[in-house]
Amino acid sequence: MFDGTVAAVAVLAGPEDRLLYTNSAFTRLFGARPIGLPARLAFPDPDGHRFLGVLDSVRVTGRARQVVGERRTDPGAPGQARHFVYSCSPVTTAEGPGILVLAMDTTTETQALQRYEALVSAVSHMVWVMGADGSMEEIVPGWERLTGSPWHPRADEGWYAHIHPRDRERLSEAWRRAAGGGERSGVFEATFRVRAADGSYRHLSTRSVPVLRDGRITEWVAATADVEDAWGTRLRERLLAQVAAVSGASLHEAFAEVVKVVVPELTDACLILLLSHDEWPLPDHAGVTARRIASATRPGLPAPPALRGQRVAVTPAVRKVLDRRTPVTFRLLPGAPVPPGLIPTVSERWLTASGATSLTLIPLIVDDLVLGYAATSSNGDTPVPGPAETELLREVLLHAQGPIRMVLDLQRARRTALGLQRAHLTEPPPVPGGTLAARYQPASSSEEIGGDWYDAFTLPDGTLVLDIGDVAGHDLTAATAMGQMRSMLRALAYAGGPEATPDSVLARLDQVAAGLGTAPLATALHTALRRRADGTWLLAWSSAGHPPPLVVPARGDAHYLSGAADPPLCAAPDLPRTTRVHVLRPGDTLLLYTDGLIETPSAPIDEGQRRLAAEASLCRRRSLPDLLRLLQGLSDHRDDTAILAFRADGAG
């Protein structure tokens, strides 16, 4: 009956367990054994004593035994081991009580299992199985080594207590989607943070696949790996790239982008405070304050207080942080006040209202200059940041010094250019028989420096000279060229005297500017006004590509003086230029302006001119300073603007 079975079969009987029968499968697995010999002689193998002990136990107790074993066909040949499982059961034979031995070769299955265990141990931190009832079994251990807590067979009672509070809801939702049943079932994949034994959080990545039997999920097999190093590297690279791409025309704008990079990735809230002094360290007696300029908070927290420039006096505690140039974290106890003097009072109140658990001060350094400091917080159930999180935050903020340096350089250049412009834009002189006023407004953006200018002076015979112009460009070079063009035009007009016509003066300026390479392109409007005996003023003017003068008569609508403008300066120095004339009557107002007053990206220039003429007509009764202030409000402040106004005495 047993001759053709795949199982190895042997029968032994008698008090010495004589071998009565073996089939071919037994011979293939254990080798040929002589029939009729007692077991101790039939199985003289080095490890045969284990088999003989099992036979004795079955004969004495009358109960079957099952054993897992291993056999080497050639003890000296590695890798030749055969694995098997066998059972010994009491039977009755013709020779009396005996024992039936059944054995199965499990070498293939055992080797496959060994390979699988080696594989998952090599590529995964942990391997675990979760049954349909939610119970969990750890196959390849690692949980206790990571968390310091024993493995718990229930996720809701063991795992979730160690998962970062910010990740719990997202992890639960991902699991519900994967285990939802039907078409929604599928592979569960998630990356989340788990609290390690030292109190820090590490990122784990889990991939779990369902095991189906008869179309139903019976269990989930999951592999969980510690990916903290890889995750930290990717996060660091991404944040450093983002902060390096920060742009802004001012420190306010640049830092407003910086705080959006670090919140909520690295902290729950971030406040930037800039010092009121440019040098650090300061003498102990020197007073300095810090001003709020940018802030951001993660979703779910109360809205931060509005940025209204609140300041805080720099206390010894903050001085120490700035002197040492290293971050310091202050733990905040529930209900306890925030240590005073670290941040403005309004921010202290916000920390209390938002349930802050820590406050970290991080110096902001650019080219060894301490600009101020960032104040970051953990709030609610967010853990207090550890050294690794604080160091990454410090590194990201330090990496912002590249774009911040560009803003500082731009601001320095802007201050220099504005100083240069204001040095040239002097107060208009008093004019008998008329009134003069001028106004200059730089662009709102610190990127736009501009080259707008005006000038007003009198010649020895009393002729009033009014000039206005604009040098192409929006940088320090344009501002420098502006000063040169203004000075050259003044010198040429004064040297030419009252007999020099406006077109001849601009022609000489064009030749000199082109010859010296003063500017790539510039516009200018040069005028000469002479008062006549009847109280009127004779205006002679020439335009080099500049917007036309606007005349606001004492009565009637404002209008632009007709006549096409000649080419701009530095474009065609040899072309002839034109002088035009107009008579200003008592009470008339002459307006010279630059294109920043009438040009906007959203409207054509003629629309800007119509608005300027209409507003000037409405405000004709205003004093010249008030009139210029109101007219300058028409600008969108994208570009700098200059306005020069002259009003002939007479009708009011």
Short note summarizing the structure:
With 652 residues, the chain is α+β, with helices and mostly antiparallel strands.
Q: Report, as a whole number of angstroms, the end-to-end distance.
A: 134 Å
Q: Order of strands in the sheet with the most strands?
A: 13-12-11-16-15-14
The helix/strand class is alpha+beta
Q: Describe the biggest sheet? A: 6 strands, antiparallel
CATH homology-level superfamily of the largest domain: PPM-type phosphatase domain
In the CATH hierarchy, what is the class of the largest domain?
A: Alpha Beta
Number of strands: 26
What is the domain total for the residues?
Answer: 4
Provide the residue-averaged pLDDT.
85
Q: Judging by the overall fold, what is the CATH architecture of the largest domain?
A: 4-Layer Sandwich
CATH topology of the largest domain: Phosphatase 2c, domain 1
Structural shape: rod-shaped
Strand share of the residues? 25-35%
Low confidence ranges: none
What helical percentage do the residues reach?
25-40%
Tell me the number of helical segments per DSSP (H or I, 4 or more residues long): 17
- Rg from Cα: 46 Å
How is the topology of this model organized?
Blueprint: E1 8-13, E2 18-22, H1 24-30, H2 39-42, H3 48-61, E3 65-72, E4 81-93, E5 96-105, H4 107-123, E6 126-131, E7 136-140, H5 143-147, H6 155-159, H7 165-178, E8 188-195, E9 201-213, E10 216-226, H8 228-244, H9 251-262, E11 269-275, E12 289-297, E13 311-313, H10 316-324, E14 328-331, H11 345-353, E15 356-366, E16 369-379, H12 387-399, H13 401-424, E17 434-441, E18 452-458, E19 464-471, H14 476-496, H15 502-516, E20 522-531, E21 537-544, E22 550-552, E23 559-560, E24 580-584, E25 589-593, H16 605-618, H17 624-632, E26 641-648
Antiparallel strand pairs: 1-2, 1-5, 3-4, 4-5, 6-7, 6-10, 8-9, 9-10, 11-12, 11-16, 12-13, 14-15, 15-16, 17-26, 18-19, 19-20, 20-21, 21-24, 22-23, 22-25, 25-26
Helix pairs in contact: 8-12, 13-14, 14-15
